[in-house]
């Protein structure tokens, strides 16, 4: 076992150690700074990627706004909404999100959300559509949403449907007959062929899309319009009503503002959300009106 004591460091050796330490400290700081900058760049890159992904999953809506009762909102304008997209989202879904999350004053009609009530007919990207039936993924952005054309706007996307309902009522859209079967409990039978003939006409949901697309209805407020004439077709062609009621219905629709105002543009047929061949029904009623007025001596 050695009893020698370690020799103390000389001043030269101590100075050398201090110099090496002093030289290593800036190097460590430089490495730490480099790592910090690299981490900051990576963080910004991730944030940018997340922002781009979030933007890619949002749909841009341009929604018509108008409120005649609020000062400052009486001038029509378009508001922008960026709605997060989910698979299967419809235009109506997007509007509901925009109303619930961004602006509670946004006003539009909707009810069943299953293309049955007809209350959410809108003008979307230049075409009449049902909001609940139109997928956002099928539309180009920005999605431009407006109220139905050729109708008075009440507020935002809500239009006055009173005239449309009046036209529908004018054709007496309900079953009437003078040909009752013998016996109180006897049912009024309809043949399969006749049912098939009128089946598509019964699909009408009174949405007003066809009326809004019709240029004749836009310029002539007295014209019955494709929806009302289709409703007249549904009953005039029903064999259970009998010949007398059929003549009465033809008298209603063959007047000046009835079927003869139709110019066969097919715009109503193209926008009908229920694929009713409206123009064909109108033309068939024209033929029936002509036949009913033919007299042979």
TrEMBL record:
It comes from the Archaea. CDD domains: fer2 (cd00207). Residues 1-48, 172-194 are annotated as: Disordered. Signal peptide: none annotated. The keyword Iron applies. Its cofactor is [3Fe-4S] cluster; [4Fe-4S] cluster; [2Fe-2S] cluster. This is Succinate dehydrogenase/fumarate reductase iron-sulfur subunit. It comes from Haloplanus ruber.
């Amino acid at each position: 076992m050695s009893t020698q004591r370690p020799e103390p460091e000389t001043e030269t050796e101590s100075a050398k150690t201090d110099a090496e330490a002093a030289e290593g400290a800036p190097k460590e700081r430089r490495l730490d700074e480099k790592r910090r900058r690299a981490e900051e760049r990576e963080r910004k890159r991730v944030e940018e990627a997340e922002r781009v992904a979030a933007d890619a999953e949002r749909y841009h809506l341009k929604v018509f706004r108008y409120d005649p009762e609020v000062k400052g909102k009486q001038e029509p304008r378009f508001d922008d909404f960026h709605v997060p997209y989910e698979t299967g989202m419809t235009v109506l879904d997007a509007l509901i999100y925009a109303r619930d999350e961004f602006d509670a004053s946004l006003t539009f009609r909707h009810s069943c959300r299953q293309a049955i009530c007809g209350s959410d007919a809108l003008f979307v990207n230049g075409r009449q559509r049902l909001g609940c039936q139109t997928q956002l993924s099928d539309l180009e952005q920005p999605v431009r949403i407006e109220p139905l054309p050729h109708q008075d706007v009440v507020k935002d996307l809500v239009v006055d449907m009173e005239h449309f309902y009046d036209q529908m009522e004018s054709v007496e859209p309900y079953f009437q007959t003078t040909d009752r079967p013998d016996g109180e409990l006897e049912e009024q039978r309809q043949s399969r062929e006749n049912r098939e003939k009128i089946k598509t006409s019964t699909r009408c949901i009174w949405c007003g899309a066809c009326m809004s697309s019709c240029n004749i209805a836009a310029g002539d407020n007295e014209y019955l319009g494709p929806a009302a004439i289709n409703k007249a077709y549904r009953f005039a062609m029903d064999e259970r009503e009998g010949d007398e009621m059929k003549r009465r219905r033809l008298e209603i629709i063959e007047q000046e503002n009835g079927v003869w105002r139709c110019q066969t543009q097919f715009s109503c047929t193209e926008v009908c959300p229920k694929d009713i061949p409206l123009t064909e029904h109108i033309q068939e009623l024209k033929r029936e009106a002509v036949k009913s007025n033919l007299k042979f001596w």
